[in-house]
Amino acid sequence: MYLAQFNIARIRYPLNDPRMKEFVENIDLVHRVADRIGGLIHRVQAEGEKDATTLEVFGDPTIVPNLTVWKDWESLENFVFKTMHKRFFDKREQWFINNLTLPKNVMWHVEENYTPTMKDGEERLKHMAHYGCTPYAFDWKYLKEWKDKVAKEYSVLFPKGV
Question: Per-10-residue mean pLDDT for the chain, 162 residues long?
Answer without folding.
Answer: 96 95 93 93 92 94 96 93 88 90 94 95 96 93 80 61 50
